[in-house]
Amino acid sequence: MLGEAPQGxxxxxxxxxxxxxxxxxxxxxxxxxxxxxxxKRPTSTLIxxxxxxxxxDATSATARRSCLVLAPHPDDETxxxxxxxxxxxxxxxxxxxxxxxxxxxxxxxxxxxxNIATRDAELRAACKVLxxxxxxxxxxSFPETELHLAGDALVDxxxxxxxxxxxxDVLVTSEADPHSDHAxxxxxxxxxxxxxxARLCVYPIWQWERPRSWVRTLQGSSRPERIxxxxxxxxxxxxxxxxxxxxxxxxxxxxxxxxxxxxSFIRRFMGPYEVFFPIPGGDLGVSxxxxxxxxxxxxxxxxxxxxxxxxxxx
Length: 314
Prior knowledge:
This protein is an alpha/beta fold. It has a single domain (40-305), classed as LmbE-like (Rossmann fold). It is built from 10 helices and 10 strands. Strands 3-9-10-8-7-4-5-6 form an 8-stranded mixed beta sheet, with helices on both faces. The protein has a two-stranded antiparallel ribbon with strand order 1-2. The two termini are 17 Å apart.
């Protein structure tokens, strides 16, 4: 997840707005980002909650499907898939977690070596809470914030992971996620799965901050699927709490000035459902409509957002 976007996030090349980094946006768009920030978060929360309520219940259908969870940074696997992981582990289903970046850049006031060691330890502690031992956790060493430079090496690494565990499902961040590392991993995974039998589903992280990122995610998928979180949220919160280096001070962590995982951001991942978006061709037959239907719904949401919050960009 790479913490909360800094106050100067518009200058950070790892934060994307569509196909371009925010730093490349016209000056008036950056101005709109600042003005509309108070509107975007509640709008994103509303859309995300609606996605869960309107999604197909896949709680039972997925519990015995083996899966590979791919995360760009340590903590994304827990935020986006924590309950899903626990439910499958509790059902005796094989689950493999792979985090692809080294965690070297955050927190920014510490050395890369310290960050790598700390965040690897936090990853393994969190996954232990989720029910996974070290053999089920892989931490790769691609430089954090630089996945856009990895190219085919990242595709090959994902392909090797898929071959090694032959999962029924692969869960990964979306190509529509506003964070560059998240989007690049989503694209690399889609390429790596070409010609395989694995089902690809994407999970939201920074969509919870950017309304139109939800729309772009939905436009590329079938109807969302939801996993019920009842009975698992206390453990999920304990797993999130393992990431002390990424938590804001208000959430019990080390970071100040509202950086890191804030209480308000964490709450978005503690709702009644975790939400996943199946990429067309991989739905489970749980009343998911066609990709065309998802696209129409996405366009409808886009018009709704445009009408209710003119100028909102994400």
